[in-house]
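Working notes for the structural subgroup meeting. M.R. asked for a predicted model of this chain before we commit to crystallization trials. I am recording the input and output together here so anyone reviewing the notebook later can reproduce the run.

Input as submitted:
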Amino acid sequence: MFPVIRLGPLSIQARGLILLAAFWLAAEAAERSARRLGLRGDVVHSLALIAAAAGLIGARLGYVLEHWPAYQGDPGAIVALNFNTLSPQAGVVTGVLAAYWYARRKGVANRLLLDALTPGFIVFAGGLALADMASGDAYGSPSTLPWAIELWGAPRHPAQIYQLIAVIVIGLSVLLDQILDNVVVPRYHGQTLGVHPAAVLVAALVAAKLIGFVGLILAAPVLASLVLLSRYLTRKMFDLDPWPVSTSSSRSPEFPWVELYRRSQEWWKKNTRQKPG
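Returned structure, recorded in token form:
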């Protein structure tokens, strides 16, 4: 834990520096991804700036509401900028809402935009985990497990490391998805769970912070269940069939190695077939 970086007479908050670097890298990653997918890079960059500004304000106000007794006697301290006094959950909610509003206004609120933003989400989530490790924030509950770390006078769950592991795992999944031409993650989550990978990423990060490693495992199925339940309730409220028959192909999604095996069999049969004399 190194909350302050000292450069001679200067003292810089490590958390703030890491978050600024993570945001810059995340914005660059999202803009490059948008251009690769045929979207306007300047729109995505502006969306990232608006989401960051709204997220910063929301995170600060969320922290103030959580610790209102400490600010009740000194309202001027509410506007004091300190990266160690922010609420990540409130920042994520306000940032996502602001980004959605801007995307709707520009007419780009679709799944393609989520595909473009996913690399940026992963980069920023990794930076947030490193910032928490540097400042000691987002610490876990007391624990006696062998991998517990000594923090704030007690051995605790390394929640920051859990979060970083979640980001690395999801990042590798998305990278594999890009390498395999969008076969694994979008097809599996889109056709089977009906949930976008970016939504799974946010749910996994929040669940890992709230209940640790178990939340990381349960995030995707719980989110898919909530999405299914909300669709059911919405369609029932409007007197619609809650289980409409899909007009798309009912073929279940295949993992890439299954498709590779099937194609190799077809190639083998085609090339070993005896030609007529």
